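Supplementary Methods S3. Input chains for the assembly prediction are listed below.
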Amino acid sequence: MKTANIGAFFQQVVPAVDETLDKILPPEFNVPTKLHEAMRYSVFAGGKRLRPGLCVAGYSAFRSDWECVLPVAASLELVHTYSLIHDDLPAMDDDDFRRGMPSCHRQFGDAIAILAGDALLTLAFETISACDQFSPERVLAALRALAQAAGTQVGMIGGQVLDLEAAGSFIDSDHLDLIHRSKTGALIEASIVLGAQLGGATPDAMRRIRLYGQRIGLAFQIVDDILDETGRARELGKTPGKDRDQSKATYPRLHGIEESRRMVHAIVREAGEIIVELGDGAQLLVEMADYVETRSQ
Amino acid sequence: MKTANIGAFFQQVVPAVDETLDKILPPEFNVPTKLHEAMRYSVFAGGKRLRPGLCVAGYSAFRSDWECVLPVAASLELVHTYSLIHDDLPAMDDDDFRRGMPSCHRQFGDAIAILAGDALLTLAFETISACDQFSPERVLAALRALAQAAGTQVGMIGGQVLDLEAAGSFIDSDHLDLIHRSKTGALIEASIVLGAQLGGATPDAMRRIRLYGQRIGLAFQIVDDILDETGRARELGKTPGKDRDQSKATYPRLHGIEESRRMVHAIVREAGEIIVELGDGAQLLVEMADYVETRSQ
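Predicted structure tokens for the full assembly:
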């Protein structure tokens, strides 16, 4: 994709991702209807499609036929949505709102919410394993990377456990980094890694892509913490101040708002410097880094 | 595997599967420790390892190096265990005991139980996608078949929803078949299908394998219903009579115990006749069918 303007990029990618999600998700009228309704409710409740965007941008740094990677990009959104549904459950973060709408369990009940999450995760693996537009070796590598990023050891599930365990207790900066790297960072990193790897990035390029992805993931989480603290509910789409109420560890709580903003700026700059070396194709990724920062302003 | 005695078969396969599970599952001392402890608690809480056994038996009908398929066989047990953990949650079947021990959420709390289930499912996909002892094409086909069997349309998750929805209402025999085929049958069928397919079964053999798997899955579920009704808690490993208490649809409730036993006998006989055509290699599968039936006596 040749556009080097992040706004134009998302304007082109988001409808294509949504169309792909619509094709992948079972129709609401298929049995069991309530489950399929809940899956679609949460997937189409809004969301910036950041992870699919990162996947397409990573792919586009190496190949121009970006439509090919859409099923994989959409699958990353399925995995992200599953994690939101389960995190919002009463047994976990107990959040009544998500993306400005009643959370899945508030709308459909706990049982359906648990199963809708399970189903979105399963559907993501099914969708990627059916991708025959790439070599089977590459598809398997993508599946492995996704499963690790979603998993328990410096992966999404592990991060959620650490986050729950940290509630109400003092944790240091290193531990907070581990939580963020696991809970949010791993899937964001995987999004760009999957795109680049399916696009045929060389090992050296993949090294840069990973470093870039790690920084983008961290910056994104700090921005999320800042938004929660500054209470911009509409931007955030969930109950603001909730992290503070639950005495959750956050960057602003540990470092203050201004210092957190400075950290985001430094991390994003570093990400840009790492990725700019990949040449013209990576211009979108450079802009993507800036885009993550502007959310915190 | 040349043994044609089902007892000897399980005596050989179960320890090998357990050893594989022990290797696949993250150690308890890895962070987050409580999550890894919960995953191991539920996986090693007992269980007959029927699905791994069916996978190995399916594979062994076509190839002799059955140890090769152990990671896949073990992954089927991970998926099965994830489904038990989530099904037992208070929001679902609300069962305090499983395999004769406190269920996962009773032992570790709801949050960890939900996440342990998520993690086992994710780990299954990670494990299979790392199998380089088979061709990438076959591994991808196995992943796709597993995801479908675990999914929402005539798959495990869909079956659980239909089962929850059917509680307390009258359903006919066809609908009960659909529930069973989805909730239990699909994964049992997938177990043998994955084994046979990775073992290199021809399309004609696969057709028989599928028909056989469908019948074994159905027979197994009817036997489970019978055991629940006759209240043999030790055999069942969970609270007996629970299905009846919750006015759940079961075969004995619809057809009576004796007629249910006769149905099992007829289905198992049919399964044997289908599979015996594959020749000597399938002798284990013939015995496996009988084994399913003897549980109901």
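The two ends of chain B are 28 Å apart (CA to CA). Chain B touches chain A through 49 residues (CB under 8 Å).
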